[in-house]
Design goal:
The chain is an all-alpha fold. Helices cover 78% and strands 0% of the residues. It has 17 helices and no strands. The longest helix is centred in the first third of the chain and has 33 residues. The protein starts with a helix and ends with a helix. The N terminus is likely disordered. Pfam families: TPR_19, TPR_8. This is TPR repeat.
Length: 324
C-alpha cells in the first residue's frame, strides 16, 4: 500500500509538472507573438539555471534570447536543449538558426564550426519533420548561400526546392529563386516565365534589384524595387520583402543620387512601419541624406542633430558629421 501510494504521488507530481510546463510554454509563446521578448525572459529567468536538464525550458529560454538578438547566450541554452532532447524539430531548427547567425559574424575559423553545427541541426530538423516546409526552406537556404567549404551545395538546394514544391509549390519556387543563377535581364525573364506563382510576389523583383544595385545600376534597381512594392503582401515572407524593398529603394536613391522624391517617400514609410527596427537610426541617416539631396536642409538638421547627440554608434556618428 505504501509503495502504491508513493507511485501514485509520483505520477501526480509528473502530471502536474507537465501541466505547469505546458502552461508556461503557452505563456512564453504568447509573449513572443506580441513581441514582448523581455517579459518572456523574465518569466523564464528563475526557472532555468546551468543545472537545468529540462529541454523544453532550456529551449524556450534559448529561443527567447535569440529573439532578443543575444545569440551567444541563445546558442548555449539551445545546445543544452538538443543535448537533452535531440528528437524535437523545433529545438534543432532554433539551434541551427542561431548557429548560422553566429557564423555570419565570427572569424573564419570559428565560422566554419558554427556553420557545420548549423547544417547538421537543419538536416536533423528535416529528418524529424519532413512534412514541414520550414525544414526544407531553412536547409535549402543554407545550402544555397553558404560557401562550399562551409557545407554549401547549390545542386542539393535545388533538389530540396523540387521536393518542397510537392508540399508547398509557392515556397518551393521561392527556394529555387534563392538558388537561381540570374545573370541578366534575359535570365530573369526566363525564370519568371517558368515561375508563374512568383509573378505577383515581391521577392523576385527584390532579388534582381539587389543584383543590379551591387553593380551600381541604381536606376534599374529602383524600377524593380518599385515593382516589388506594388505587389500584394499575401503572407509574412511577402510582407518582409516589400518592407525591405522600401529601405533599399531609399538607399539606392542616396547612392545613385536619383529618384530622390521616391526615396524620401519610401524611407518615411519604412520608418513609420518599423519603429523597433535595429537599423532605425541608420534609416534616419538615409532620410537625412535624401533631404539634403532635395535641398531640404532644415528637415535634414531636424534628424541629424538629435541623432548625433543620442547615438553611441561610432560609425553612424562619423556619417552624421559628414552631413553637418
Amino acid at each position: 500500500m505504501v509503495k502504491s501510494g508513493l507511485l501514485a504521488g509520483a505520477l501526480l507530481y509528473s502530471v502536474a509538472a507537465i501541466a505547469n510546463t505546458t502552461s508556461l510554454t503557452s505563456q512564453v509563446t504568447a509573449l513572443w507573438q506580441s513581441g514582448d521578448y523581455q517579459a518572456a525572459r523574465q518569466l523564464l529567468a528563475d526557472k532555468v539555471s546551468k543545472k537545468t536538464k529540462d529541454a523544453e525550458l532550456l529551449a524556450l529560454l534559448g529561443q527567447t534570447e535569440a529573439l532578443l538578438s543575444n545569440n551567444e547566450q541563445a546558442e548555449q541554452w539551445l545546445e543544452k536543449a538538443v543535448k537533452f532532447d535531440d528528437n524535437h524539430a523545433d529545438y534543432q531548427h532554433w539551434y541551427a538558426t542561431v548557429s548560422c547567425k553566429l557564423a555570419s559574424s565570427a572569424s573564419m575559423f570559428s565560422a566554419l564550426g558554427y556553420a557545420k553545427r548549423c547544417k547538421k541541426a537543419y538536416e536533423t530538423a528535416l529528418e524529424l519533420a519532413p512534412e514541414n516546409p520550414r525544414s526544407y526552406i531553412a536547409l535549402g537556404s543554407f545550402l544555397a548561400q553558404a560557401p562550399a567549404i562551409a557545407g554549401g551545395d547549390k545542386d542539393e538546394a535545388l533538389q530540396l526546392a523540387e521536393k518542397l514544391k510537392q508540399l508547398d509549390e509557392t515556397q518551393g519556387w521561392l527556394l529555387q529563386l534563392k538558388v537561381a543563377d540570374i545573370a541578366d535581364d534575359a535570365a530573369f525573364d526566363q525564370f519568371l516565365a517558368g515561375a508563374e506563382l512568383l509573378k505577383a510576389r515581391p521577392e523576385p523583383y527584390f532579388q534582381r534589384a539587389m543584383q543590379l544595385a551591387s553593380q551600381e545600376n541604381y536606376i534599374a534597381a529602383i524600377t524593380l524595387l518599385q515593382q516589388a512594392i506594388q505587389q500584394t503582401a499575401v503572407d509574412d515572407e511577402a510582407k518582409a520583402s516589400r518592407n525591405e524593398s522600401h529601405y533599399q529603394l531609399a538607399r539606392c536613391a542616396v547612392l545613385g543620387k536619383t529618384a530622390v522624391t521616391e526615396g524620401i517617400a519610401a524611407m518615411q514609410y519604412y520608418l513609420q512601419e518599423n519603429p523597433a527596427s535595429e537599423r532605425y537610426d541608420w534609416a534616419q541617416l538615409r532620410l537625412a541624406q535624401l533631404y539634403l539631396l532635395a535641398n531640404s536642409t532644415e528637415k535634414a538638421k531636424a534628424i541629424t542633430e538629435p541623432l548625433l547627440a543620442s547615438t553611441s554608434d561610432d560609425k553612424l556618428k562619423a556619417e552624421l558629421k559628414k552631413l553637418l
